[in-house]
């Protein structure tokens, strides 16, 4: 199990272009298809990874490992997630100037960036409204939408600190749900 | 020789310590860390120039993996070789690792409390907003012509409808850009691989992690 976690997160780490939220659909696929976690626990993992400080990608890896196999699982998953970065970054550092202006790399990124945009948008929709065990739309959906728009508005318009927005949403949740 | 070894240990410890302090106070994912890392490394410690830092950050954003982890690995490697990279990654990973495990076990114990469950539902909304914001920032750099716009929409629809491993999407994305650009060149169309930057202001540099 611990070895499976390690190998899976190496795979995810190697292909996690766009970092953070872009890898959520990948982790979701691995964790749920692999039967490690239920949708409900996965939702909880993403919430905690998003509200905790630090990078979302490594946070999610740590949390999934922790929920699946305790501290050993958390260590294996985090190491798996970080290891590809470590190796690739050293390789890139060594070939710094060759990599930078390669036309091939630019062409791949041209195709990759929109794919990642789609992945992140999917992460938002799935995490928001499809992952729950209950039906797609429930009486809670409008309240969630109100919180989403309020949070988005205060993040973009008033440039509020993400932590402030998270705490305010928590309080709003206690008041409304 | 002895002082050399001592200086090296001090450097490794300083790297570890600098990154240790950044992670626990940055909320909202990797991109929130970038300004903190820049300030610590260029302004405070004066380890690298701002130009070197910009190069590093653009590469850190393009490589797979979290931006924060990549940036720390780059800086650590540049300053202290492989052991420097390890020290920097350990510094940025360990505090959040502990925080996340504590949060998770704390939440498991309190999950049955109605107030905690309600607060979590509210936070759920905030996290959706943070993800949407990340998608929007990505789109700003990624979607600038009909091809890229169509690709983003197709990827979203396919993921919503079919149960496809997203890893394949990424793998396809890596090659389809090359193929599409070749086809466009053959057709004699105008080719652009990046969004044009009309005025490169400091404000844009904040979103440096979205080079990819």
From TrEMBL, chain A:
Where can this protein be found?
Cell membrane
A UniProt-annotated Pfam family: Chromate_transp
Q: Please give, as recorded in its UniProt entry, the membrane topology of this protein.
A: Multi-pass membrane protein
| Keyword annotations from UniProtKB, A to Z | Cell membrane, Membrane, Transmembrane, Transmembrane helix
Q: Which GO terms describe its molecular function?
A: chromate transmembrane transporter activity
Parts of the chain that traverse the membrane = 6-24, 74-97, 109-130, 136-153
Principal cellular location given in the protein's record: membrane
Assigned GO CC terms: plasma membrane
The similarity annotation says:
Belongs to the chromate ion transporter (CHR) (TC 2.A.51) family.
What protein name does the entry list? Chromate transporter
Which species is listed as the source?
Paenibacillus antarcticus
Automatic annotation (TrEMBL), chain B:
Where in or outside the cell is it found? Cell membrane
One MF annotation (Gene Ontology) recorded for this entry? chromate transmembrane transporter activity
Q: Which InterPro entries match?
A: CHR_Transporter (IPR052518), Chromate_transpt (IPR003370)
Q: How does it sit in the membrane?
A: Multi-pass membrane protein
- State one Pfam family annotation: Chromate_transp
Q: Which UniProt keywords apply?
A: Cell membrane, Membrane, Transmembrane, Transmembrane helix
One GO cellular component term of this record is: plasma membrane
TM segment ranges: 84-105, 117-136, 167-187
Family recorded in the similarity comment: Belongs to the chromate ion transporter (CHR) (TC 2.A.51) family.
* UniProt-recorded name of the protein: Chromate transporter
Which superkingdom heads the taxonomic lineage of this protein's source? Answer: Bacteria
